[in-house]
Design goal:
The strands form 2 sheets. Strands 3-8-7-4-5-6 form a 6-stranded mixed beta sheet, sandwiched between helices. It has a two-stranded parallel sheet with strand order 1-2. Helices cover 44% and strands 12% of the residues. The chain is of the alpha/beta class. It comes from Apteryx mantelli (North Island brown kiwi). This is Cytosolic 5'-nucleotidase 1B isoform X2.
């Protein structure tokens, strides 16, 4: 739910009478009264200012058992089970600690910029039966939570409560799949040659460049208050590229975009799972399923980005 209220509009000739002037004045007065209310809880930011993060109920909470009941016994038994357990708090799901970290960033931003609305707006999305909503609401209130395909980790990993950590792959995630196409179709030697020849030519943007930009904007708000060392957002580039042979173009591309990354890790083809265990990001984005699965096995929450030429090879295999 947002702080704005829906407005009904009519067109001439549609059979509906226009509201009388008194009704419009009443509406304006009611809206002004709502806007003047003081609350200890921060209002949701207006959509035009917010970085909206939509999270499904099955990502936010562990609903594996509930899903099993739905699939094996049907919707009636599922709804009955949820109603009978509506006061039993749901356990955290794969996106839970990511959302908690987003909320910590919001709290810090509200401290430093109390009148500013440029922050995360977390939206819970669900297609559950309405009666199931009570349990979801109870669980949200229990944890104090405001209202891409994510994969649950196979191991329990502790996450930072005071720093949002987001890790990105490079090609086909932050950047386009231009270079990855060359690897897949012409081999590594041609890829190394291509990257060296084009070192000073920025890569085209990928699907998650905008998210890194949004994180960067919020980081700069902390930097402006001399909070760089205490900034509650930290970003990582975790790429299979080699620093020596193909890393320069990546760093120069980020520089040309005016974007910073806190840590750039060039693994030269090594598995990503072990380094992600050290980083402990709340979420890791990658376009290749074998990297997703490797991260998942070692306890990292990973989101698959279905973009680029890797999807063609994944489907064919």
């Amino acid at each position: 739910m947002s702080g704005s209220s829906p407005e009904a509009t009519t067109e001439p000739g549609d059979g509906a009478a226009a509201p009388p002037p008194d009704a419009e004045q009443d509406w304006a007065a009611a809206k002004a009264f709502y806007d003047s209310l003081v609350s200890k809880r921060p209002r949701p930011p207006k959509p035009q200012h917010a970085i909206t993060v939509a999270v499904s109920s099955r990502a936010l909470f562990d609903l594996v058992e509930e899903r099993r009941i739905y699939e094996e016994q049907g919707v009636e038994k599922y709804v009955q089970y949820q109603q009978e357990n509506e006061n039993v708090t749901l356990k955290p799901g794969p996106a839970f600690y990511f959302v908690k970290a987003l909320e910590h960033v919001n709290a810090r931003l509200c401290e430093l910029y109390p009148d500013d609305e440029e922050r995360f707006d977390i939206v819970l999305m669900t297609n559950n039966h309405a009666q199931v909503g009570v349990r979801l609401i109870n669980s949200i209130n229990h944890y104090g939570i405001a209202s891409a395909t994510m994969f649950t980790a196979n191991k329990d990993v502790s996450y930072s409560d005071t720093e949002l950590r987001v890790a990105f792959d490079g090609d086909a995630v932050l950047f386009s799949d231009e270079s990855e196409q060359i690897v897949k179709e012409q081999g590594l030697d041609r890829f190394f040659e291509h990257e060296q020849l084009n070192e000073n030519k920025p890569l085209a943007q990928g699907p998650l460049k905008g998210f890194l930009e949004d994180l960067g904007k919020l980081q700069k708000k902390f930097y402006a208050k001399n909070e760089r060392l205490n900034c509650p957002i930290r970003t990582f580039l975790v790429t299979a590229r080699s620093a020596a042979s193909s890393g320069a173009r990546v760093l120069k591309t980020l520089r040309s975009w005016g974007l910073e990354i806190d840590e750039a890790l060039f693994l030269a083809g090594a598995p990503k799972g072990p380094i992600l265990v050290k980083i402990r990001p709340h979420i890791f984005f990658d376009d290749q399923m074998f990297h997703i699965e490797g991260a998942q096995k070692l306890g990292t929450i990973a989101a698959h980005v279905p973009y680029g030429i890797a999807q063609k090879y994944h489907k064919s295999s």
